[in-house]
Amino acid sequence: MPAQVQTLLITGMPASGKTSFGDWLRDNRGYVHVDLDAADCLKTAGLPPFWTEKERVAALDSGRLREFVRHLRTVGKSSVLTWTFPVDLVDFTREMTSFGVVAWWFEADRLAARQR
């Protein structure tokens, strides 16, 4: 990983290790980890309330989403966002990457993911 501050978006199948890897980056590399699947993810990560618990990050307009990504760059640490998202929201991921977020996809055994 480069030493510069960066923002990763790790998406993918359930049970593929996204959250575990995000936790590892937080615990071993000093990243801010935002688990977008958790309702209180912003509070847990020590971030301001960019959206309410009833809203979901995918529902944010471009302006609020861009503001969120900009804020992540001001905390002085790299950040990792983990999220199991429906594949019909691929445009959301494209938008995140247009703001400079690096997107990774985690694949998993489909039968294990289905059981989870």
Note the overall shape: globular
Q: Low-confidence parts lasting 5 or more residues at pLDDT below 50?
A: none
Arrangement of strands in the largest sheet = 2-3-1-4
- The SSE string, one letter per element, is EHEHHEHEH
What integer is the average pLDDT?
88
- Distinct helical segment count: 5
Intertermini distance: 30 Å
What does the radius of gyration come to? 14 Å
Q: How would you classify the helix and strand content by structural class?
A: alpha/beta
Strand segment count: 4
Main β-sheet, in a few words?
Answer: 4 strands, parallel
Helical residue percent band: 25-40%
Strand content: 15-25%
Walk me through this protein's architecture.
The chain is 38% helix and 17% strand. The protein has helices spanning 18-29, 41-44, 62-74, 90-98, 110-115, and strands at residues 7-12, 32-35, 79-83, 102-106. The longest helix has 13 residues, at 62-74.
